[in-house]
Fold:
Amino acid sequence: MSGKPLRKTFENTLRAVALAAAFCHSAFAQTGPSTTNQLPNPELRGDSGILGGTVTGDAPTLWRTFAVGDSSASTAIIPLAQDELFLGSPAVNAVNLTVTNFGPPATSDAGFDTFPNRFTLISGVAYEATVFLRSNNSDQSSQTVDVSLPVFDQAGTFTGNFANALFQATDTWTEFRLPPISTNLIGASGELSFRLEEGASDNSILIALPRVAGPRLENRVPNPAFSGAGGIAIENVSGDVPDFWRAFGLDDGSGSVALQTVPVAENELYPGSPATTAMRMSSSVFDSSGFDHETTQVPLAPAGRLTWGEVYLRADNADGSNQEVFFAMGIFEADGTFTGSAPGTVTVTATPEWKYFAGVPYAGAEGQTTNVAFRMEDSGTENTVLIALPTLKGLSDSVFDNGFEGDDTPR
Structure:
């Protein structure tokens, strides 16, 4: 699916939308302690996003830059220092979106969005999107930006319901806010998208700290810091297996796994990252060795609750080579039987530097569960990788048990 069908759906309505006013308060002031950012990867980390159509540059992981028809565009990922957006703002990335050719309006569309990576919308809850924007036109002129939050049903069909505004970004970072939006549908989801209105200059914008405030998200992976030694070792495993985890090296395939915890200092994974513990994993034979928490899976229900996996990886081969890693998220039936479906799974390339990776959001049926698992592709060397902050990001069970509650944790 391209961005074009949505654009055509919104087009007549957008013409009637006046330029929206800016809201220039801190991101921390706009949301209370009971909200979490619903967007996948709002820090715009990584570079494995989608480039669709005539697009150059890089897109952050779980985001997309697209240009269809006769249009063309480019994106670049730009690090921002602490306090650059506002006093107290974290060190995050911005994305520079430039539309280099708008093309004939009837056949062309370009922009930057989270498609196909949607986020859960709970029935009856109001969601409010905010973002920091700055014009990046070389003549310092303002840039008009079309920001939309469309609502989709459980089948992924656009419902016709959306929040939208046209914002006038200047050459100073400014925070803008969409009108709140809600839905009565069960299993609904949303996206966030950015398009530029054609002007007389470069048609270039900087986007940072996109946010959709909603109920609490949490990391559902048990023991992501790999503490303890009470996990399960199956056959050819050396080193301690952390609590709630499992390692296996099956003899019938000559598989083996070696584990060792490694301390990770503050700021080592990314600017502002917490001190944590990584797992150093070496393995052989892709099909018969691995590391997971299959014995402590987490539920995917209720219907429509989207979950996605995140992790930081670093290759640790002695020769400095990259390491292919199978970062898997399977779906299991209530009795533990694998369904054969693993929609969030990705095969990624870890480098000698820490890098952020994520799989696409996915949902399951009542009673089904999921986990994260790591297996290695044979690199021809030691097949060694460091794993840090493994995450299954999803809505807290308490949201469904007790209503809209939680905290405003930054991740």
Observations:
- DSSP finds three helices and 31 strands in the chain.
- The first strand starts at residue 36 and ends at 37.
